[in-house]
Description:
CATH topology of the largest domain: Tetracycline Repressor, domain 2
Strand order of the largest sheet: 1-2-3
CATH architecture of the largest domain: Orthogonal Bundle
CATH class of the largest domain: Mainly Alpha
Shape: globular
Helix content: 55-70%
Largest sheet: 3 strands, mixed
Oligomer: single chain
Number of helices: 21
Amino acid sequence: MSEETQLADTEDLQERLAEVQTLLARHKLVEELTLPHDQEEPDNIPVLDVDQQHLDELRKKLEPMHPADIAYILEALPLDERLIAWALVKAEFEGETLLEVSDAVRESLIESMARNELVAAAETLDADELADLAPDLPRGVIDDVFRRLPLEEREQLRAAMSYPEDSAGSIMDFDLVTVREDVTLEVVLRYLRLFDELPDHTDQLFVVDRNEYLKGVLPLNVLLVNDVEVEVGVLMRTDFIKLEPDDLAEDAAKAFERYDLVSAPVVDRDGKLVGRVTVNEVVDYIREEAEQEQLAQVGLKEEEDIFASVWDSVKNRWAWLAINLVTAFIASRVIGAFEDTIEKLVALAALMPIVAGIGGNSGNQTITMIVRAIAMGQVQPDALRRLLKKELGVASINGLLWGGLLGIAAWWLYNSISLGLVMTAAMTLNLLLAASAGVGIPLLRLKLGADPAIGGSVMITALTDSGGFFIFLGLATLFLK
């Protein structure tokens, strides 16, 4: 990364985005004003000079920016403007920028690049970074890059690509510093001075033997405050957190959070050091998981480019919308089954959305808490009975409290104590239904090996709508004459 690369805070980044959008708008206007091709060439020259001036200015805006900031700007641009800006990004930043953008935007950028451009961009990345990008690259590009890598990096890339996507190995970094336990701190310090810079997030050195088996760790703060004549083996720590490549990335993230880690070694089953996990990779993993969970809760298959084509967006959203259509139809048939009751007491039509809406809200609160607890490893499938008992208690209190208030309001508005009692009972029963579903749906999906977050919000809403209508109108039919 160039030393001139600048980081931007949120406000500054918004200003840069606005400047880029302004330059792109001017560029587009100049293109629209360009004379037809059948005009004489000299007449076009002033217009083209102005156009090139805008592009040069845009290039200068992008040149000093950090790849993460460039990625932010690219994601905020429509496809045609995005490709113009992408063509002006410095070649040495293309690989890192591809890693920073969302999957959907990355796909659009890769499609616009020639094979030799993709190879050049990929060659700027470390083996662990290249492994992250590899699934999105054409097979031929990966083959070309693989052949050009030094033997050691080739083996690292092969290893990184062999680990499952949700494993600690998939977020592992191979760039680390190792020392021997039988050397003095003075030797270690001389060795470190040979580096142009230490690998990012180096808070400790890894102590290994001649066969690369991990013996301990030497924190930098310990290295710096002790006598240079002391040997590493005397000061190294043997009680440290270590991971294995097959450990779940989720478990690694929990360890970093629990123990405030900056880095942690990764060893194979025999104890041989193979890499490390750093806090920046853990933060990226947590962010990506949170984004995927948010999308899954509303039934989206994947992160969507906001400027994607209509057809791509339709394909991403249609499945759960189809399910919603079916559940909405069921809810409408539930209402249709009680048409006679509604005709006799029009107040039911005004009150029944309240029962369904409160039930849906309560159910979403419950399912959000359960899914979060599952993600944190605090809930197992066998906890169903205990959690259900607790959530049913919460639902009962809320139902009687808020249902009672709504019942009083219905009594006051429509001068019917029976309607007020039906409202209270319906609200309580629908909240109990919502609590049962909010606990049962994610735990059942977990037990079946499915993602507990996927479609939870959609299913809860469908159940509390149909169930709420049925409960409220059913009680009204029985008790309101």
